[in-house]
């Protein structure tokens, strides 16, 4: 009986050993797990938009540091930035700027154009070849109570007092529609679109505005044909500056390249009468009550230089 039990247990152990050996063999033959490839990073919508927008921008050469005048530019002085719209006439490659010499101080951040390397001060670069910049003395009344700004347009009026030369006081427009270039030490833009005055911080800008309100000089852009007329007006009478409306869009037309027509300038010059003659011509003589009933006697015209008088013998 014991032998039979022993043989049964031995058979069971044998079968278990065979089973475990077979199972170990099966497990040893299973393939190793394949490592999954890393998923490709998803491109964000913002990056896609940025790439598309970058392709539509235009290259502009700008200065990365201040450059003194008469110093040739190097590749370390400039860089190319991409803007949505490039300023008119701006340089687009570094090669266009390297080796060129500016005639004036250029600040960091300035975009470069061919005019950046042309000679002339800020005021000379604010006018065209057919214009002249002329300074006029003003006070709080003449200068529109300190409210003039560079870019405004004004009419120059002249007032003539009654004196020995002028029988009657008179007023007229000496020169119409002149562009204001600067008020005191505050100036507008040059013809290349750059500010003529250096960039100022908030405190310096506030001080400049205070000086502008109290300014005693105004610089006007005068057509060359009317320059002598304005000079004559500043010497013979009292001036007033009358501000013209911005609705006329004169500044916009100027920046668009429009110039005053020769016919307009000729018409303005045709009105250039000698101021003393103009005042005398507008004078109205009152009839004398003492000789009202007497027959009129012929008058004798007497000319002394540029003065004309009528005398009755």
Give an overview in words.
This protein is 27% helix and 21% strand. It is α+β, with helices and mostly antiparallel strands. Strands 3, 4, 5, 6, 7 and 8 form a six-stranded antiparallel sheet that branches. A two-stranded antiparallel ribbon has the order 1-2. The longest helix has 27 residues, at 2-28.
Calculate the terminal CA-CA distance, rounded to whole Å. Answer: 183 Å
Helix content: 25-40%
What portion of residues belong to β-strands?
A: 15-25%
Mind describing the biggest β-sheet?
6 strands, antiparallel
Q: What assembly state would you assign to the polypeptide chains in this entry? A: single chain
- What is the number of strand segments? 10
Give the overall average pLDDT.
76
Rg, please?
A: 44 Å
Low-confidence stretches: 276-294
User: What is the number of helices?
Assistant: 7
Counting helices, strands and paired strands, the structural category is alpha+beta
Overall shape: it is rod-shaped
In short:
It comes from Pseudomonas khorasanensis. This is Flp pilus assembly protein CpaB. Helices cover 27% and strands 21% of the residues.
Short key terms for the protein model shown above:
313 residues, alpha+beta, 10 strands, rod-shaped, SAF, Pilus_assmbl_Flp-typ_CpaB, Flp pilus assembly protein CpaB, RcpC_dom
Secondary structure blueprint with pairings:
Blueprint: H1 2-28, H2 45-56, E1 58-63, E2 78-83, E3 131-137, E4 153-160, E5 170-183, E6 186-187, H3 202-213, E7 217-223, H4 227-236, E8 238-243, H5 250-255, H6 262-270, H7 275-282, E9 300-304, E10 307-311
Pfam family, one: RcpC
Protein name: Flp pilus assembly protein CpaB
InterPro entries: Pilus_assmbl_Flp-typ_CpaB, RcpC_dom, SAF
């Amino acid at each position: 009986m014991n032998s039979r039990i022993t043989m049964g247990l031995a058979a069971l152990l044998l079968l278990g050993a065979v089973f475990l050996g077979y199972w170990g063999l099966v497990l040893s033959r299973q393939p190793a797990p394949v490592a999954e490839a890393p998923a490709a990073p998803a491109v964000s919508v913002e990056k896609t938009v940025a790439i598309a927008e970058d392709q539509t921008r235009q290259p502009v050469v700008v200065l990365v540091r201040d450059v003194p005048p008469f110093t040739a530019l190097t590749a370390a002085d400039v860089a190319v930035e991409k803007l949505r719209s490039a300023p008119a006439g701006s340089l687009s490659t570094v090669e266009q700027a390297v080796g060129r010499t500016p005639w004036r101080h250029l600040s960091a951040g300035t975009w470069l154009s061919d005019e950046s390397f042309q000679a002339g001060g800020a005021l000379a670069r604010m006018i065209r070849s057919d214009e002249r910049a002329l300074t006029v003395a003003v006070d709080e009344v003449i200068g529109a109570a300190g409210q003039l700004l560079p870019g405004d347009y004004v009419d120059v009026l002249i007032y003539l007092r009654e004196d020995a030369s002028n029988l009657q006081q008179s007023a007229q427009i000496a020169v119409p529609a002149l562009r204001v270039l600067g008020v005191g030490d505050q100036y507008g833009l040059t013809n290349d679109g750059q500010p003529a005055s250096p960039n100022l911080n908030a405190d310096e800008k506030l001080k400049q505005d205070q000086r502008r309100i109290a300014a005693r000089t105004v610089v006007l852009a005068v057509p060359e044909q009317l320059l002598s007329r304005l000079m004559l007006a500043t010497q013979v009478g009292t001036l007033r500056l009358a501000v013209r409306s911005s609705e006329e869009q004169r500044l916009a037309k100027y920046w668009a390249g429009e110039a005053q027509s020769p016919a307009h300038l000729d018409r303005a010059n045709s009105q250039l009468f000698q101021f003393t003659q103009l005042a005398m011509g507008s004078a109205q003589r009152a009839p004398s009550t003492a000789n009202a009933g007497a027959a009129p006697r012929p008058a004798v015209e007497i000319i002394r230089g540029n003065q004309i008088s009528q005398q009755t013998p």
